[in-house]
User: Fold this.
Amino acid sequence: MKKIAVYPGSFDPITNGHVDIIKRGLRMFDELIILIAYNRNKNTLFSVDERSEMIREVIKDCKNVRVDCSDGLLVEFVKDSGANVILRGLRALSDFEYEFQLALINRRLNREIETVFLMTGYKWFYTSSTIIKEAASIGGSVKGLVPEIVNLKLMEKFNNKKAKI
Ligand code: ADP
Assistant:
């Protein structure tokens, strides 16, 4: 049986922390689906289309990985995609409680689906989309923490000519 995993998140925007999990996930699974899980009532900096466009650019040279989006129940998406694993990344202890709750509710909803966690690479321990957006919005350079396409889009978004490159 093919091992297919779904890596869900907001990816608003994708960071090098996410990319690390994607590349390592690809070594473990035959196929990986990056799922932009969105909520119509939640404000995001980038639209779903902008987020998928950036992710597509980042994974353009990788095989066996694709992007999708859904505002529905995660376990339903996983089942409908023929996958049986949810891939998540863990940073600090602060991620643990939320991730634990999420994994437990998903397991309750569908016992056939397992959540697999990868510890973040040490370089990305403090990298989160939120921190990246905060820094970029006030003119800080986030080069090296996000893929180059994301760096450019952030600068465009914030009209951030001051960012030190
Ligand atoms: P959420 O929408 O739940 O905040 P994100 O979209 O930011 O999640 O991230 C999706 C997944 O990627 C989560 O499992 C999150 O813990 C993980 N992740 C985010 N940033 C990093 C990072 N720097 N290193 C490892 N995993 C990360």
Notes: The two ends are 46 Å apart (CA to CA).
